[in-house]
Design brief:
disordered N terminus; Growth Hormone, Chain: A
Length: 437
């Protein structure tokens, strides 16, 4: 063995759990790379505007229709996610269910290529399905994390995956924008080139997820001779909810996630609208903003993964929430592009870090036999936040007659409340409760 091998291999072994090869960890992280294509192109950058302008015809209710479809998907996920997680734990088949959810998301995303005028109902149904399948896959993929890294290094591996995810989203967005520019230069309209971007997104998602299914191992075993039915999975979940008093720190952290993720999901969904309405950003400015923020988010997720392993889960998430509070203040104070660009890049650093860190912390707080189930609860918390946050922003904006600055300031309250709730979480006590299961 060479000197380089003798120093690198033990380091990898310290990060990864026994029996986990680096290529398997890379295969798992590639799922983050793959599924980020969906959120970046469909939810954030391209299809959302196309839905409002073309599918819904630019009607006054168009944005409401978009948010309603996402809300229905989130509500379904709040019910289905934890039950499906419990079912996966009983059967020991997270990987098989992950494959099914991936096929569902890729197929329904590709079907969005059929979206156009007079397809509102069909398009909303496909949007609900694609978003729901995406959320199921996100939960199941996350449930593999505690099997791949040691407790002390889950933050680092989660950060690697999350930062790789932002790069995947950027790659897909770049491919789509190259095609859009090519098509627009030849006189094509949005009705012609946006549907093709859905096919590009589906193709990237499907192709990039292949390493996950080739390299990732299913280590969980079916629990019990009958392995369990869906009804048994639901009953198991209800027992877990009743026994929540045995996991007080997990319960507090899930509540904390609902609160601060409400603020994060609002920024994800409405930052572009805020930039345009409050600061006069053009569409080109907004797209550039999305690209740059994705880069800083990748940096934040990667760097804070190392920081989390060094200073601890609670301290790391607290630092990111402090950053979100600072971002809110700067965005509220901004009257021109410079200060808002600074705020946006702080948001990017905190965006990747706060979400990656929470995923790793849930892994530490989850009993080994209930990982998919508990990550289903994590997904439920995030989905509830996805409804509460943007809806609160929209109501404040409406009641204040379109005052987006006031809505942004109130949104900052979610981060402050989340920070206060986080201070009530004891990481070591929560870890012991999970290990005693």
């Amino acid at each position: 063995m060479t000197r380089t091998e003798s120093t690198v291999v033990p380091a990898a072994q310290r990060i990864l759990a026994p029996g986990v090869a680096r290529r398997e960890a890379w295969g798992w992280a590639m799922y983050d790379f793959a599924n980020s294509s969906y959120t970046t192109v469909v939810i954030t950058a391209i299809f959302n505007a196309y839905f409002v302008a073309v599918v819904a015809g630019g009607q006054a209710w168009a944005t409401l229709a978009w948010t309603a479809a996402l809300a229905v998907s989130n509500l379904l996920l709040m019910v289905i996610g934890p039950v499906l997680g419990a079912y996966a734990d009983l059967h020991g088949n997270k990987k098989r269910l992950l494959l099914a959810s991936t096929v569902g998301c890729v197929a329904s995303t590709a079907a969005l290529a059929l979206a156009g005028p007079e397809t509102l109902g069909q398009t909303m149904l496909l949007l609900v399905l694609s978003s729901m399948f995406f959320g199921i896959g996100e939960n199941l993929s996350a449930a593999f994390l505690p099997e791949l890294a040691t407790d002390e290094h889950q933050g680092r591996l989660s950060g690697w995956g999350w930062s790789l995810g932002y790069l995947g989203g950027l790659l897909t967005l770049g491919l789509c924008l190259l095609y859009v520019d090519w098509a627009a230069a030849r006189g094509q309209q949005a009705m012609q080139f946006v549907p093709v971007t859905m096919l590009i997104t589906a193709a990237v998602f499907g192709t990039a997820s292949v390493p996950t299914f080739l390299l990732l191992r299913e280590r969980a075993q079916a629990q019990g001779s009958a392995a369990g039915t869906a009804g048994q999975a639901a009953a198991r979940l209800l027992r877990t909810l009743r026994r929540a008093r045995h996991y007080p720190d997990l319960r507090r952290f899930l509540l904390c996630i609902v609160v601060y993720q409400a603020g994060i999901q609002t920024v994800i969904a409405l930052a572009a609208i805020y930039a345009q309405q409050a600061l006069g950003f053009t569409t080109r400015d907004t797209v550039l903003l999305i690209i740059v923020v994705n880069v800083t988010a990748a940096v934040g997720a990667f760097a804070f993964g190392y920081i989390q392993d060094r200073i601890g889960h609670v301290a790391t998430i607290a630092a990111t929430l402090a950053g979100w509070i600072l971002m809110t203040a700067l965005a509220w104070l901004a009257r021109g592009p410079l200060l808002f660009w600074i705020a946006a890049n702080i948001a990017g650093l905190c965006l990747g870090a706060s979400q990656s860190s929470a995923r790793a912390f849930i892994g530490v707080l989850s009993p080994a036999a209930r990982r998919a189930e508990f990550f289903g609860l994590w997904g439920m918390a995030v989905r509830l936040a996805s409804i509460v946050g943007p809806l609160t922003y929209g109501l404040v904006s409406w009641l204040s007659q379109g005052d987006h600055r006031q809505a942004m300031l109130i949104n900052g309250g979610f981060f402050l409340a989340g920070l206060l709730l986080l201070l009530m979480v004891d990481a070591e006590r929560g870890k012991r409760a999970a290990q005693d299961e």
